[in-house]
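# nightly structure sweep
# worker-07 picked up a monomer target from the shared queue
# config: single-sequence mode, recycle default, output format = C-alpha cells
# input follows
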Amino acid sequence: MTDTSEHILSSGRRRSRVIRPGSIQPFLAILILPLLGVLYQIYVPNFFEQLGYLELPLLIVVYYSLAWRSQIAALFFGAAVGLMQDALSHHYVGLFGITKTLVGYFAASMSLRFDVDNAAIRFILSFFFFVFHQFFYWIMVRALLGLGMAFEPAQMFIQAGLNALVAIPLFIVLDKLNNRWSPRL
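# output follows
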C-alpha cells in the first residue's frame, strides 16, 4: 500500500477525532439539528421546488454516525430522525425510520474502517448513502406497501451528487460547531 492509501484507510493508527454521543455536544443540539433538517425537508420544497432534492435529515444522520463511530448510537439516532421525519411529514410512519436506521448503522460501521475526516471520503460516503437510502426506500414502498413508485436512477445519481456536494460544507460547519463545544485539552 502507498502512504496515501494507508492514510485514508487507517482509522486506528491515526489520531482521529471521535465524537462521543452526549459527551461533547449538548443534548439540545442533537435534538435541534435533526428537527431543523426535517422541518427544512417538509416546508422549504413547498416554496422553492428546486431545493426538494436536498435530504438534510439524511446528511445529519450520516454526519453524526460517522463522527460518533458507535454503531448502536448511530442506529438509535437514525431511527429517531427517521421516525421524526415520518411523523412530521405525510409519509407512512416507519419507512424513513427503517432506512435512516440502516444508514446510521452502516455509516458508523464505515467510520470504523475509513478516515472519515477526509473530504473525499465524506463526499463518496454521502453519495453512497444517499443512493442506498433512496434505493432501499423504493424497495420498501414497492415490497411492503405494494405501491407503484417510479425508480429513476439517472435522477437519483444527480441528486446524490448534489447532496454530496452540500454535505462537504455542512460537515465542515458541524465540525466547527463540535470544536466550539469540545473541551480544550
